[in-house]
Amino acid sequence: MAESGEDASASDTVELVTFQVKEAYVYTPIPPATSYGHRAELWNPEKWFQAVKLKVVSIGDDLIIRLEEQESGALFAECVLPNDGSSLTRAVEPVVDSSRYYVLRLQDREDPKKHAFIGLGFSPGR
Asked: Where is the NECAP PHear domain (predicted)?
């Protein structure tokens, strides 16, 4: 039996995990950026909001940072990286005082004008 075009395209979607980390931490709310940028020293590393697994997933032309709850594997948040030639720092911004912490811009897929910022941290040696 032949599949309809819609069913065939849905089953042809391939997700490729290009990178993953078993342990990362989400910080929220994070203080606003200073004139120099976001500073991890203003976050309390021991007071993270959620422990997550991080996966970078390629789906077609899209590259997505997917955060999943460590215990259940449920989706916590996704950060879609720009594929229009604009700077990646629109979606992922390193903090100015550490190489282990970043700020992710989470954009509402239904309303692109809505977004939120969360902090993301990694354990040493990751």
From this structure: 15-123
Classify residue 6: in a domain, yes or no. Answer: no
**Number of domain units in the chain:** 1
- The pLDDT tens digits of the residues spanning 30-82 come to 888 888 899 999 998 889 999 999 999 999 999 999 999 999 999 999 999 99
- What pLDDT does residue 6 have? 53
* Nearest residue to 69 (alpha-carbon basis) of 47, 45, 51: 51
Question: Residue 9 has what pLDDT?
Answer: 55
Domain hosting 103: range is 14-122
In this structure, is residue 5 part of a structural domain?
no
CA-closest candidate to residue 117, choices 43, 12, 11: 43
